[in-house]
Every structure is written in structure tokens, then in C-alpha cells.
Amino acid sequence: MKPDQPQTAPPADASARRAVRPVICYPTDTLPLPDMALYRTAREKTEKIAEVMVPPRDARCFRVPAGHFFRIISVEGPQVGDLNLWSADNLGERFYSGKTRALHGTHLSTGDRIWSCFPYFRPMATITADTLDWYGFDEFGASVHDVIGTRCDPYTHNLLSGGQYHHCCHSNLTRALAVETGMPLAKAEAYVHDVLNVFMCTGFARDSGQYFMKASPVRPGDFLEFFAEIGLLGALSACPGGDCSAEHSSDKARCYPLLVEILRPADGLLSGWRPPAPNGYDRSHGA
User: Fold this and answer.
1) What are the pLDDT tens digits along the chain (287 aa)?
2) For residue 214, which of 225, 222, 203, 206 has the smallest C-alpha distance?
3) Distance in angstroms (rounded) separating the CA atoms of residues 87 and 101
């Protein structure tokens, strides 16, 4: 964070420098848009083909075929979840939270997309419904479903407290991926990546710029729904922070399970839809 007492005196034109208007880094006027009308039609008639219950302070994996929907649902009480996504056919293609943030902003909702890492860089999933879209941004600058927090992890916990806590979202996701794939923990851990913080209510403090959390507004029955643009392997951790109203990386918070449902649209409702191809850059890098 910036110091309260800067060591450098402001120059004579400091006010003019601060007054320079910002420029959006990645204007999205030419960004390919999802066919939300098609998705709305497809989601009106679906069949649940699978579900996975994620226990409190733990994680589970799930698989979603391309062209299907999946929902993350609050079922018993206010609970946030940390979501990882990979291509079902290639764990090297994973969710790129930083570029998703650069394209869509700090917090996601309906119509925003989950983008994969380089060199694939294509939509992995599109958000098709969000029962918390009413929340918007509150007086503190907070909103829900952020792509700014990295996930609670045992390394930061150890750095700040010296403890050995094994149910941080990073560890939960690592265990779940190891079980799903049969990989050793150390190998699986390398594939765990920055998350979409589902239902988490977060922002940046205006005075210090620090990342903050507050009690999630999620209640049983709320859900975040996605359309799988490609075949997906997902992992969801029910965060040990519960609704993240006080702290995480401990067993003090009251925690609840989360439900993941996999939904297949009725035949013919996605006529003409195709999974997106990997990014078209030729990867020559000017060499």
C-alpha cells in the first residue's frame, strides 16, 4: 500500500499530473460477444444429469460437457466458494483470472466470460444467470463474484501466523484435483490457479487500497450459472471462511456446503452453436 507519509515532495505540477483522465486498458468494443439470446432459450428447457455436493471446508471436482450448463447453488446457509476451471482434455489450459478481470472488471455477472490462459486464450464459460446481480456495488465499493482475490492458502497463512492450516481453498482444490486425476499432491498443486470467488463480497479500501471482504449477501436458493463453451473440469472449494464476514483460514467460521448441478439443454436448442477455437495468434513472437 502507499505510505501515509511520502518521502518525496510533490512537484509543482502534481495536481495537473493527478488530473490526467484515465484510459480503459482493453476497450471491448470489438470483443466477440456471446449469443445470450440463444443461451436464454437453451436454459429454459434443461435436464439435470449430475450433481456434486461440496462439503464445508473441502473441495470437489466436477465435469461439464461442452454445450451444457452448470450452476453453483447455496443450499443451507451463506457460503462462498473458490472456483478453478480447466479444459477437460488439457489441464494446461486453465482459467486466467487476471485477463478475465482486465476484460470484464473486478467482479463478474451475467454476460461476462471466463477466459483461458495463453496460448489458448478463448472463452471457457459464459455466465448465464446470477441471482445476486441486484447487489451491484455498495457504499464501500464492494460487489460479489470477484476475480481479484487469489484464494486463501496455507503459505500466506503460515507467513502471517506461523500456523499449519490444511483446509485453505488452495489445499482443498489441490486435494480434489489429486483425487480426480490420480496425480500426486505435488503435481496436482501446480495446476491449481487463481480463482473466481463465487458469492464472495469484496472490494478495495479507499484509504489504503487493500483488498477487503465482508459478509456475503448469498442466501439458500441463490445461484451462479454458467454455459460451458468447451468441455470443462471444474473444482470448487467451500471456503473455510464461510460467508467471509470475519476471517478465513481457520475453523472458527460457520460453514455450509455448496451444490453444483450439471444441466443438459434439450436437443435442438443450440442449433448452430460451436465451441470457440483457440486464439488465432501465430505464436511467432516476432522471431
Assistant:
1) 888 889 999 999 999 999 999 999 999 999 999 999 999 999 999 999 999 999 999 999 999 999 999 999 999 999 999 999 999 999 999 999 999 999 999 999 999 999 999 999 999 999 999 999 999 999 999 999 999 999 999 999 999 999 999 999 999 999 999 999 999 999 999 999 999 999 999 999 998 999 999 999 999 999 999 999 999 999 999 999 999 999 888 899 999 999 999 999 999 999 999 999 999 999 999 99
2) 203
3) 19
